[in-house]
Phospho-2-dehydro-3-deoxyheptonate aldolase (Victivallis vadensis), 355 residues
Amino acid sequence: MISSNNINIASRSVLSSPGAIRSELPLSLDAVIKVMEARQEICDILDGKSKKFMMIVGPCSIHDPEAAIEYAERLKALSEEVKDRILIVMRVYFEKPRTTVGWKGLIYDPDLNKSYNIEKGIFIARKLMLRIVDLGLPVATEMLDPIIAQYIADAVAWSAIGARTTEAQTHRQLGSGLSMPVGFKNATDGTFQTAIDAISTARSEHSFIGVLEDGHVGVFRTRGNPYAHIVLRGGSGQPNYGAEHIAFLKVAMRKAGIKPAIVVDCSHANSNKNYKNQHIALEDVLRQIADGEDALTGVMLESNLLPGSQKIQAGCRPDPGISITDSCIGWDETAELIRRTHEALGKIHGENSGE
Ligand SMILES: O=C[C@H](O)[C@H](O)COP(=O)(O)O
Ligand SMILES: C=C(OP(=O)(O)O)C(=O)O
């Protein structure tokens, strides 16, 4: 029969519902408590109630679950060492927003070969998140597809809305209903206003359409997320974490009625997409804090077991510990930067005597 529908649809198939996958891979009571406690710690940092500094650290994207576990075990051990001054949250990113086209992350294409076994991707992703939460490490992720959020959000302590989606009403609405703090990246051109508008929007109540636990379509009414905040990632080839940017941003945020609580992404345009520059952003942030800047609440580092990045090549298994998206610092540099940050914070708080 002739139809005006599905002209550009190649195929459709049923996916297990969020409720079905969550009941197959449930969060234990202990894990629920860990997630809730980590979220509260992050809220306290953003509120300025806790003096701890948040470091969101981990791969640009995860493509090998076993390498991710090895990374998480190392990060957990290090987080124990620095936990008096630093809250470490692991980047566990399964969805990649692309500038044009490219691999979109483990959930979309877990076999890295354009077979797009999304059901398998969701299972692997959720299982991995639960293992990392069980290790005692809080998890951060980007919420890109609003439906995918329903499959994993219960395990997440901190979420991001990316630079390419911060302007979208869909993502601001999603942020308004998320149960954890949500960081909105500034726009890809490096300006702040889109993210400030996103924060105001996400802190408000919304009504919108989404997918329910059982897979049916439903109407969601949200309360607004009081912990929507900004993440600076630079843009147009320029960093935007300098003291002059922070001063300008704070004025703009106060004008919008938002108490400034800022996270600096040391990667992306803040590193000119070169992992070797991430330490420069981190050092600048620590200098500003030493000079008395109290709106800088945390940083993000893109880090993997090994430094750099690699391209996906058809028929070849990529190295498990090297990024297949943006370049990352390797483990050795990661550990060094975290320990240096711990030491710098000790000096700032006057706590280093006897170390
Ligand atoms: O964080 C990852 C990338 O910067 C983002 O996904 C965009 O990547 P692309 O410009 O390579 O598509
Ligand atoms: C895609 C990312 O960042 P941005 O949205 O800032 O480009 C990311 O952090 O993985």
DSSP finds ten helices and ten strands in the chain. The radius of gyration is 20 Å.
